[in-house]
What we know:
hypothetical protein PF0899 fold, three-stranded antiparallel β-sheet
Amino acid sequence: MHEMSIAMAVIGQVEEAARAGGASVVTEVRLQVGELAGVVPDALDFCFGLACAGTVLEGAALATEFVPARARCGSCAALWPVGMPPELCCPRCARATEVELVSGRELQILSVRWEDGPDPVRTAEPISEEC
Length: 131
């Protein structure tokens, strides 16, 4: 199940950004997933929940934005939904040699919502290491 490796990669990137931003808790991750990306959304959601355990993302919501697959014909400029299985022959001029996929392969982090960490403890005097 490659959804687990995707979930772990997302968590790794978000953890790195959260640390750099001083976050203590990540509350939401929004992903964009294309129809042709080969990702099963329910499996990704399940794996994400499991992989977040013990990280700053524990309990975070995963919001997935689905992107339908669309193609454009280089000959006549027609734009059409590709669907599954992919239909890569132009419905207008019947050519398949100059077809370009314009959407549907996306797999990216759109946004992350987190809470700031606590303010650092400040003391008037340096903390002594003496007993």
